[in-house]
């Protein structure tokens, strides 16, 4: 019998709808609402490049596709198209509303027709000085072969007209050079007003400067964008290295099949037909998305810091961990206790400091690390190269197939090898997604191993905006098995045995099944039984079916799932003991852990893996048990707070309506504010801390300015210790 589930793709669109809710929320600072529109747009770009592209590939398989995904790809694609059009309409209305609200604060986004004479002169001067040299106009009605449009790149489809002979028009294509110029140009202040113009409109204003010599005096310019299939394909040529295969795949990606054509809905029908014919696009595939005047709203994530401070989140700087003292060796601390870092509430710099200390410590002989995504200016890389130059043996397992980071990871691989670091690239069959560091430190008496086992990437930028956890430990039960994982990765995937850690693709699924089965046995024996789950995505049909069985037996299951969630919660005789929420707020909820009741002796696990087939069966992932009682209490408090959220939590249901958790009779609890305040109180227990958390001087916080100013919730915020424990779900 087929497991009842929701489509993964439709569930993902429901997640992006929650992002759109943040843009609509009047309690979110106004500039941040604009940024959420950018996040929504960026998410949708990737959705089409990956999920829609995959469905289109599957649709070519005919009946075989239904057995793979459980339904007809064409049917799902139609549902996607309908839902995306609805979301696009909401998006356009929200953008117009936000513009009006910005105007109330004397902030204006002007187009080329709205400039006063002084502004127009300023913009034309900017165009001539900075923009014109970066433009390559292509006369598309004069060439036989239409140029290949770059993936997710803005173009102005332009019509040149002579008033004296309007029938003798010309069509021109101009790429908007956002890769080399900023999307926003801030105009000089005037009369207490702050204004800016988009690069698209700077070019529109400058068209006369380009084409006036040919007596064209009227111009129409419409934004278009093509999204392409971003999946990399590898052949079976074993003579080529993985790096060469990935590099070749990146070249092929530039010419991937079109999966979405976005265009200004105001474009004349004859011009649109001309473009469609020239690009040889199939209009029957449901990938045509009419939009507004502007596309690539992902650029709005980096909207300029203009206007009053109250229109943006105040900085919410990461706090120090009280156990890690600035004047004490981190190794000495880890000899005495395990440390759990909570990002972005606490400093990711502690991990960098650990690597820096290892790089110069004469007793450290080796450092090993797995890398999936890195910051553009990575201090992790600097620490590893420093270690190698100091004579340490440094090994990096670099995942070249981290989607959309392949080019960056090839670059970093070369840099590391130039610096004397040994780099391992793995195989095309398994992505290495686990987050591990292993440091070997030798003294006269013994060798001690130190490990970091985490849920998030070693990326100092995303560590400021993604919630994640990293366990720093010298516990030999764990470090010895981290050694085995690196042995496995370094020795061409020879199978190892693990007693404490779970390692995909080998034993994770079996371990999860075993723990769920135990909860079922406990509840059948009349004992208390529950499972608490925090993760990004839950889509694995086999585990969903197992959770249904647990619910039917009476096991209470409560979940916090950020993104894709294909389980049907709250269904009588199927899942009535399962409740799930999703939290979308200023930080991206990214951490993953779960707790099993285990007859009152709770078991805690931290993991890099979501419960998806790819994470359990086709990736190298690590799940780590938490043995330290104090850290267990921290994780329990963490999920108790999340499950008590009454401000940013949405109920996950089969209706995909994203209704907020009811507040009736309950205090307002905003998870991320409560947690930050809790960790701030924890940091105050360190007698060496001056109470002034600051971002490192070499980082640029402008794009990630978060605020603890929440006037609608602050008066009613509960301190973390008063949040009720999340045992069995409350009765509905």
Characterise the protein shown here:
With 732 residues, this protein is of the alpha/beta class. It has four domains: 105 residues, Up-down Bundle (Methane Monooxygenase Hydroxylase, Chain G, domain 1); 183 residues, Polyphosphate kinase middle domain (polyphosphate kinase like, 2-Layer Sandwich); 162 residues, 2-Layer Sandwich (Endonuclease, Chain A); 220 residues, 2-Layer Sandwich (Endonuclease, Chain A), CATH 3.30.870.10. The chain is built from 18 helices and 26 strands. The strands form four sheets. Strands 14, 18, 19, 20, 21, 23, 24, 25 and 26 form a nine-stranded mixed beta sheet that branches. Strands 10, 11, 12, 13, 15, 16, 17 and 22 form an eight-stranded mixed beta sheet that branches. The protein is globular and about 90 Å long.
Task: Write a brief caption for the model.
With 732 residues, the chain is α/β, with parallel strands linked by helices. Helix content is 35%, strand content 19%.
Distance between the termini: 29 Å
Helicity, as a percent range: 25-40%
CATH class of the largest domain: Alpha Beta
Total separate domains: 4
Inertia-based shape? globular
CATH hierarchy: architecture of the largest domain: 2-Layer Sandwich
Instruction: Give the total of beta strands.
Output: 26
Rg, Å, rounded: 27 Å
Strand content: 15-25%
Per CATH, what is the topology of the largest domain?
Endonuclease, Chain A
pLDDT < 50 runs, ≥5 residues: 234-239, 697-725, 727-732
Backbone structural class = alpha/beta
pLDDT averaged over residues: 89
* Total helical segments: 18
Oligomer: single chain
CATH superfamily membership of the largest domain? Endonuclease Chain A
Biggest sheet, in brief? 9 strands, mixed
